[in-house]
Amino acid sequence: MIDFGRFYQQIATGPLSHWLDTLPAQISAWKKEQLHGGFKSWEKMLDNLPNMTPSHLDLKNSVTASRDPALTSGETRRLNNILEQFKPWRKGPFSLYGVNIDTEWRSDWKWDRVLPHISPLKDRLVLDVGCGSGYHMWRMLGEGASFVVGIDPTQLFLCQFEAVRKLLGDDQRAHLLPLGIEQLPALNAFDTVFSMGVLYHRRSPLDHLWQLRNQLASEGELILESLVIEGDEFQCLIPGERYAQMRNVYFIPSAKMLKVWLEKCGFIDVRIVDQAVTSTEEQRRTEWMKTESLAEFLDPTDPSKTIEGYPAPLRAVLVARKP
Questions:
Q1: Where does carboxy-S-adenosyl-L-methionine bind (predicted)?
Q2: Which helix (H) or strand (E) holds 309?
Q3: Which of 75, 143, 255, 306 could lock 71 by a disulfide, CB 3.0 to 4.6 Å apart?
Q4: Is 200 among the annotated ligand-binding positions?
Q5: 153 annotated as belonging to a binding site for a ligand
Q6: Rounded CA separation 4/255 (Å)
Q7: Cα gap 248→173, rounded to integer Å
Q8: 93 CB neighbour count, 10 Å cutoff
């Protein structure tokens, strides 16, 4: 059974304490009303997963755990079989006691693009919005963050995160909550807030930026990563029903327009620090995510376009500060 009680205890004192006015009731309602049909079986798989304490743990360069002595071939096979029950694995990769989870996304590549441009995370309180399986949360701890909170309403991602946590020695410095950003009160508490791969799924992108601002402490830093198009500050794509086969893609601005949006929402020192085309090496189908991926979402005769005829995915990273 996934227990949020330890998280409540950890935030009972400190800058997040007032979150307890609303959070336990939200989690209680979620447990009663909103559980996915597969959630019980995922929880059962979590119970079957052994608690492991790594002899060697690397969160700085990867998410890698190993043990001395190494697992036997039978133990490795059993661990692999349990982790396969949480497919599809989209964000990673993870290397856990000889089981290498080759995820759809090389999220480490995104991290390598982001990290050189942000303030050091050492001793920071961090929020990761739309965190997926929590891969980047572990990398944030690897950079010295003191405490990391991730939010993502997708329940499979919560179970993947809890599985990894169990294999990393039950690390309590990171927690994932099954919530969306719109469910958070204005906490005004985090030193750093990440929103990566979320903005284009929001019907009201400026509201999303205001919600992110409301989570930051004064002088806190926002790292925003999103789909963009080429163009000046007046360019924005509003796709039809699908973009690269994704539903619920509402606005894809240029990076320059996104900078204007951030300034409109009261952020300062806004910088466009990176822009990169998403390659079929960075997002692809694997043994751990066997359904269609980016290669199938691009025009087979012109990979500079999506299958719908829009510009192929281009992603920008912007860094900004709350005054």
A1: 91, 105, 110, 130, 152-154, 181-182, 196, 200, 315
A2: none
A3: 75
A4: yes
A5: yes
A6: 38
A7: 33
A8: 21
Q: Note the Cα 122 to chain centre separation in Å.
A: 19
- 63 membership: H or E segment, kind and range: none
Asked whether residue 182 is marked as a ligand-binding residue, the answer is: yes
Residue 246 assigned ligand-binding role: no
How high is the pLDDT of residue 197?
97
- Is there a binding annotation on residue 307? no
| pLDDT at residue 203 in the model | 96
- Per the confidence metrics, is the pTM higher than 0.90? yes
What domains, with CATH codes, occur in the chain?
34-322 (3.40.50.150)
What span, in angstroms and rounded, lies between the C-alpha atoms of 192 and 74? 42
105 is in an annotated binding site: yes
| Neighbour count for residue 268 (Cβ, 10 Å) | 11
Query: Does an H or E element contain 145, and which?
Result: none
Please tell me the number of Cα atoms within 13 Å of 8 on its side-chain side. 12
Both structure tokens of 37:
């049909």
Q: How far apart are CA 58 and CA 7, in angstroms?
A: 24
Q: Return the C-alpha torsion angle 118, 121, 122, 126, nearest 10.
A: 160
Residue 1 has a pLDDT of: 78
pLDDT tens, 174-218? 999 999 999 999 999 999 999 999 999 999 999 999 999 999 999
pLDDT value for 186: 98
What stretches in the chain show pLDDT beneath 70?
A: none
Question: Does 19 show up as a binding residue in the annotation?
Answer: no
CA angle 185, 4, 150 (to 5 degrees): 55
Residue with tokens 């492991």: 52
Calculated CA dihedral for residues 147, 148, 151, 155, nearest 10 degrees: -100
Say if residue 152 carries a ligand binding annotation. Answer: yes
